[in-house]
Amino acid sequence: MLNTFTSYQLIAKDINKSISQISKQPVVDRDTKYYLDNITKVKSIDEFVNNDRLFKYAMKAYGLEDMDYAKAFMVKALKEGVSDPNSFANKLTDKRYADFVSAFNFAARGSAATSYNPAQQGVATNYALQVNIGASQPGFSYYQTETSYYVTNVSKVKSIDDLMGDNRLLTYAMAAFGLDAKTEPPARVRAMLEGGVTDPNSPANQLPDKKYAAFVSAFDFVQYGDQATSRDAVQKAVPAGYATGTGLVLVKPSAQYIKGEADYYAANISKVKSIDDLMADKRLLTFAMASYGLDAATETPQQVRAMLTGGVSDPNSPANKPTDKRYATFVTAFNFAQYGQQTTARDKVQKDTLKIYTTESALGFIKPNAAYIQSETAYYLANITKVKSVDDLMADSRLYNYALSAYGLNPATEKRDLIQSVLAGGIRDPNSVANKLTNKAYAGLAAAFNFEQYGETATTNNPAQQSTVDKYLRQTLEEDAGNTNQGVRLALYFQRKAPTITNWYSVLADTALASVVRTALGLPDSFATADVDKQAQLFGQKLNLTDFTDPTKLGKFLTRFTSMWEINNPTSPAVTSVSVLFAQPTSVGISTDLMMAMLKLRS
After folding, report:
1. Which of 151, 159, 197 is nearest to 176 (CA)?
2. Among the residues of 297-410, which ranges form H helices?
3. Tens digit of pLDDT for each residue in 482-495?
4. What are phi and psi of 251, to 5 degrees?
5. H or E stretch including 165?
6. Residue 154 CA to chain centroid, in angstroms?
7. Which parts of 20-143 are beta strand (E)?
8. pLDDT at position 579, please?
């Protein structure tokens, strides 16, 4: 019989190969196949616990095999979940129960508990939430309204006087560059605009804060005259800068989608000659209302018709009565009450509405319609499982944009190198890039696409599926080793748990872990009855917890343990140390391998 040290080394040197051998055992292979074939069919706690074969497999995987009879106990834990710190599972000192409930999280995931994957359903759910919460953020309506005003009026500005004469436009324009028109003396603003930026000694260029020069560079009337506001620097860049400055988290649809909606509107709006025509084309109505900050999906057709019919001439009309002036703005554009069949021939409808929509939609101020969300989500779910690495995700811009948007991150402004680092570092290390960033959205993204921990299975892994199988196989490996040598089982168990140990009290709370430490330190079993604080203090004096996260140092510690275990629990009658020095390696007693390991501990 092999000694403890040798037996452990044979298994640990290639743990994956050892687990593979376990998985090929007929009983294990059969039970695992049954589990994987059936676990995704389980949609409730009752179905789970009533399938004895599945339930026992899962319980063993989490080291709870001895409790698989206590179904009422486990049902209570499963029903309360782990979201509440005071839930039944979380209050138990043995954290294996919380781990088990977290894997089979029916309380949070419902019928999707055994098929849920954060990179699949989790991201899709977050994406839909991000789309819907955009308009509910503080200040959204104001920012949207101001952008609409800017877009429809800035082209009329042909001079410095025009810009200075419209305080609303000036405030918006300066805000896009991080400047506050309320605190800037008008004389200084005018002087900067009149000086331009061509001369290095101009008022704007002389200021150390380069935001002033950036503002004047956009509204460079000195160089471009009355064409200054027709440039992209004014038409597109200013609204983009303004939107960024709001700090809002918005989902921006694709340019292709925006073009498709705009093209449809442009091709069909002239055909609309009445309120009935507009109401009959839901796509046009949605476009028109969205341009003025209204959601056709949340307004009843009766309300919309009443507003359009009433017009805006009467101060008491349905559109004028609400305090929210977006209704009146919408009806002013589509004023069938005043213009009749000529309503949609006007620039207000043909040009302004189109311009507002394309600009605001690109900025995220207009929520994409349900068809777009459905299409993007369908593409995402159909393709995300093909993603096997960080590089795969970043190579597909459509998937990448969807994923970042789901966590409130703007794909257009996020630095790809940063996202690469966030995803590569994962979340297990407290000092990973994702965990160190103040914005927790990055950690959320890294948790969903956890390639660092799950590798190629990150987008398909479900804790109730392969993760449970992996745990089951590891548990079986340890149990099989224990049937021959309990010291090997303890060493394998410690190796598995070591990276999760955060303090000595958690070691003392686990009798198996505590036994390994006592044995390695040469302490008698009676030491377990000593004061807990004194035990923890001694462990801390003798060992460094951080060593357990270092594979090399952990290996040396377990060599020490298996050597000490063999001395205390010899696998066969001991031979003299002298005879060992001259004997050929044998499979009994304290082998040469073991003696060499012990000598290394002393050196």
Report:
1. 151
2. 301-310, 326-333, 336-339, 347, 353-363, 370-383, 390-395, 397-406
3. 999 999 999 999 99
4. -90, 125
5. helix 160-165
6. 39
7. none
8. 29
Q: Above pLDDT 90, what percent of the chain?
A: 81
Residues 6 or more apart whose Cβ sits within 8 Å of residue 128? 373, 377
The CA-to-CA distance between both ends of the chain, in Å, stands at: 28
Cα distances (Å, whole numbers) of residue 460 to 119, 317, 448, 451, 463: 8, 56, 11, 11, 10
| DSSP letter for each residue of 492-531 | HHHHHHGGG--SHHHHHTSHHHHHHHHHHTT--GGGGGS-
- Exposure string of 349-374, with b = 16+ CB inside 10 Å and e = fewer, is beebbbbbbbbbbbbbbbbbbeebbe
- How far is Cα 326 from Cα 291, in angstroms, rounded to an integer? 10
What is the rounded distance in angstroms from the CA atom of residue 207 to the CA atom of residue 210?
A: 7
CA distances for 449 relative to 99, 367, 368, 384, 422, angstroms: 20, 26, 25, 10, 10
Q: How far apart are CA 41 and CA 35, in angstroms?
A: 10
Q: What angle do CA 25, 26, 27 make, to 5 degrees?
A: 95
CA distance 481 to 503: 27
What is the spatial distance between Cα 197 and Cα 211, in angstroms, rounded to a whole number? 12
| Conformational region of residue 426, where left means phi above 0, alpha means psi within -120 to 50, and beta covers everything else | left
Q: Is pLDDT of 577 > 70?
A: no
d(CA 196, CA 117): 56
Residue 288, number of CB atoms within 10 A of its CB: 25
Cβ atoms within 10 Å of 316's Cβ, excluding its own: 7
3-class SS at 371?
Answer: helix
Q: Which residue has the tokens 């349905």?
A: 318
Q: Which ranges constitute the DSSP H helices of 526-576? A: 532-542, 551-568
What are the structure tokens assigned to 350, written together?
Answer: 């043909």
- Rg (C-alpha) for the chain, rounded Å, is 34
Q: Of 471, 475, 452, which is closest to residue 463 (Cα–Cα)? A: 471
Residues 378, 568: Cα–Cα separation, whole Å: 62
Cα separation of 354 and 111, whole Å?
Answer: 44
Neighbours of 420 (CB within 10 A): 15
Q: Is the confidence at residue 504, as pLDDT, over 90?
A: yes
Provide the residue type at 137 as one letter. Answer: Q
Q: Three-state DSSP class for 334?
A: coil
Q: Which candidate, 524, 518, 475, 520, places its Cα nearest to that of 497?
A: 475
Q: Locate 199 and state its tokens.
A: 């001369």
Stated as kind and residue range, the H or E segment containing 480 is helix 466-484
Averaged pLDDT score across all residues of the chain:
91
C-alpha–C-alpha distance, residues 286 and 263, integer Å = 14
Q: What does the alpha-carbon distance between residue 509 and residue 487 come to, in Å, rounded to a whole number?
A: 19
pLDDT for 232 equals 95
Distance CA 419, CA 441 (A): 11
